[in-house]
Each structure stands twice: as structure tokens, then as C-alpha cells.
Amino acid sequence: MHRLRSERTGISYLSNEAENAPLALCLHGFPDIPRTWSLLSEDLRDAEYRIVSPWLPGYAPSSLEGPFDAPALADRILMLIDELSPSEPVRIVGHDWGSVLAQCAIARRPDRFRGAALMAVPHVLAVEENVKEYPRQLGRSAYMGLFQLPLLSERLVMMRDLAFIERLWRKWSPGFEPDADHLDDLKVCLRSSMPAPLRYYRSLKSPRVIAEIRRLLGAGPLVVPTLYLHGERDGCIGAEITRGQEAHFSALFEQMTLADAGHFVHLERPAEVNAAIVDWFGAH
Q1: For the chain, which residues score pLDDT lower than 50?
Q2: The predicted structure's pLDDT at residue 68
Q3: Are 27 and 55 in contact (CB under 8 A)?
Q4: What whole-number distance in Å separates Cα of residue 15 and Cα of residue 50?
Q5: What is the topology classification, in CATH, of domain 2-283?
Q6: For the chain, domain boundaries
Q7: What pLDDT, on a 0 to 100 scale, did the predictor assign at position 17?
Q8: Please, is 274 exposed, middle or buried when counting C-beta atoms within 10 Å of its C-beta (0-12, 13-18, 19+)?
Q9: What's the rounded Cα separation, in Å, for the pair 232 and 183?
Q10: What is the H or E stretch that residue 31 is in?
Q11: Coil, strand or helix at 251
């Protein structure tokens, strides 16, 4: 994989540079980096895809300039897609925030996508609906409130060699030990990027942003064929928060809930997750 940069969007990305192959765009979440897709990239490469795994805006070496609200970020992702694949629709993979941005991009321009594989964050409107029935989720999401506090939150995150980030990984994926080199690379990225990654969460304080997300995703079901994967033991977003989300997708929707897996389901169960994604993209 080679590191490249889109000067138009300010987004840096990893790619196998298979220029004539169909594009699969893989979006990481928080707290993570493109390295998270290394195993999936191998399987997508073997299936003859061109893989592009960006550092999301706000994650160095991508631009640290905002805005960082989901609709604006989705527009930047769409600009990158138009640059890399101007005529052919692409496949998109999204984990955590990557799932949210993929949803917004698909809602904005469904013609640019042939298929989607989303993980760990269900349809945003389903999250809103289910939190009312499962208020325990508010406790799991308490970190989002912390991130609303400028200066204090980034200081807490950066303390003791980013111990807070390691705790999130342990809490969100119980019993899973990420590769040490992966965590080291993530820490290097976050040290160079703060507080931009936290500004994704701070954008949610804006009534205008919330209204725009609801308008965008509430205009109708997402019509792009979508595979959704969630870990049964996810400590960030409980599996019950996915219930009923199929109503927000077209008929071409399939959900897999994986036992003994948490938030980073693609790292915990790579063989099953990668095979499901490759099969889904092959069928769509």
C-alpha cells in the first residue's frame, strides 16, 4: 500500500493503486487510523479491487481544517470519490464515524455508490429512536459529553501516553488486545491531530447540524445495497440499538450480529467479516 494525497480535498490515504480496478473506499472511525483495514485490504486486493483507505479529515496527515460536522465531512468524501472514480460508482466500507459519514454520503448522492458495508454504528435515526427505549446507551455514550469540553477533554485524552484511548478500546471490545504497533501508530496520529478528532463530537452541539443530519437521513430509506455488521458485545453501542434499522434502508439490506465480538468487529472476527464484505460487494 502506498501513501498518497488528494490536494483538492486535503485528504491523505493508503492505496494499492490498482488504477483500472473498481474502487473500494474504507473509512475508519474514532479512535482509529487506516491501518485498521490492513486485513480487509488484503482480501479486497485479492478480489481485484482498488483500495483507498483515508485518514479522515482531522486525522494527520490529512488536513486538520474543519468543518467537522457529518454532512460537511460527507461532502469532502464525495469530492474524493469524484476525483478518484469520476464515472464509476464505488463500494464503501465504514466503521464507527466512518459508518455515519458513509450514511450521509449515500443519502446525499446514492448514484455514486454500488454497495456499502457498515459497522458498529447503525443508521443514525435508528440510534435516536432506540435510545429512548434503551436508556442504558446514554451511559455508554457518556464519553461524548466529555468531548464537548474544550481543553479539559484533550488534556484528559493525552494524559499518561493516551491511556484514555487504550481504556476505550478495552471497554468497547472486551477481551480483545489490539496489535501493539497499531496502537503506537494511532497514538502518533492523535498526538499530531488533537483536538480535531474531538471536534466531530463537538459539532453535535449545534442544532443546525442535528437538523441537517435528520433532514438528510430522514428524506427516505438509503437505496444503496447495504450490509451491516455489529458485535454482540459492543461496549460502545449496544447491539439492541440496531433494532428496527432495516426500515431506514432499501429492500437490499442484510444485518449480521457476531457473537463474542465487540466494537472493533472487523479486527476481532476478520475472517467472517472480510468474507461477508467481499461476497456482498461481489453480489452488488
Answers
A1: none
A2: 98
A3: no
A4: 7
A5: Rossmann fold (3.40.50)
A6: 2-283
A7: 79
A8: buried
A9: 23
A10: none
A11: coil
